[in-house]
Design goal:
It contains 5 helices and 17 strands. It is an alpha+beta fold and about 260 residues long.
């Protein structure tokens, strides 16, 4: 499983809040995606809700800090008080990002955009929990990603927690019962993993032979309920949001969404 997760880890980046006269603060996770040469950062929308006008967003990539300029894309849908969509991100432009090769970004072929409404099988959630990140010294970073194995949640979890199976993807996660090297352990709190990827193995992890594909962007850890889950926004819904904003990418995204999974 560790070998299969090397590609997802490579396109998953820690996110930092840059405040005046303060060291970079690790607070969330993002995933890099390129569509027709246009580079994007995908993350959870709520990470932008408490930023001040003076804060700047940055990613950690190849051991260095890279600034994310521009106004973030923020898409939300509220039903029963819950932000079910909760997607944020935006286009990565500028000289520094132009120098990053497209191989450092996911392609559309690496996305699982049409998995069933209530899937079965194994998933991985990869992100950068705040409690595992060492302090940033200058502009050099040493970030530690955490991969978590998870199983798809049953249909009654969606109903009980108020999620829409067409928009959201739920995977079971109880931090007190995490498998690691064949034994149950307690995982660190996943705060800071918002915006990380939820990756589909397309079946059972024990027999997986292919690199998992991105199925969703993690948005919320529900741990005070009967169903303990990591909630995410489906990547197919995120592609629709990008296509709505970028007309030049609409046709290619439409082709992807019509492909068999």
């Amino acid at each position: 499983a560790n070998e299969l997760s090397s590609r997802p880890k490579a396109v998953t980046v820690p996110l930092y809040r840059l405040s005046k006269n303060e060291p970079p603060e690790s607070f969330a996770t993002g995933v890099l995606l390129a569509i027709e040469g246009v580079k994007f950062l995908l993350t959870a929308g709520h990470i932008f809700d408490h930023s001040t006008g003076d804060d700047r967003l940055a990613t950690g990539l190849h051991g260095s800090i890279l600034i994310v300029d521009g106004r973030p894309m923020r898409v939300r849908s509220r039903e029963s008080g819950n932000d079910l969509f909760d997607f944020g991100g935006g286009e990565l432009a500028g000289r520094a990002w132009d120098a990053i090769p497209l191989t450092d970004f996911l392609s559309l072929d690496e996305l699982a955009a049409r998995i069933p409404r209530v899937p079965i099988g194994s998933f991985a959630v990869i992100g950068y929990p705040v409690t595992k990140q060492p302090p940033v010294l200058g502009t050099q970073i040493v970030a530690q990603a955490l991969p978590l194995a998870a199983k798809a949640s049953p249909e009654d979890a969606y109903k009980a927690l108020g999620y829409d199976a067409g928009v959201n993807l739920l995977v079971g996660f109880d931090k007190r019962q995490v498998w690691n090297n064949g034994r149950l352990e307690t995982a660190p709190d996943p705060f800071g993993m918002s915006g990380g990827g939820v990756w589909s193995f397309g079946g059972k992890l024990a027999v997986a032979t292919k690199v998992p594909r991105l199925a969703g962007i993690a948005t919320e850890w529900r741990h005070k309920t009967q169903h303990k889950v990591m909630a995410s926004t489906r990547i197919g819904q995120i592609l629709l949001a990008i296509g709505n904003k970028y007309e030049k990418l609409r046709q290619r995204i439409g082709m992807k969404l019509r492909e068999p999974n």
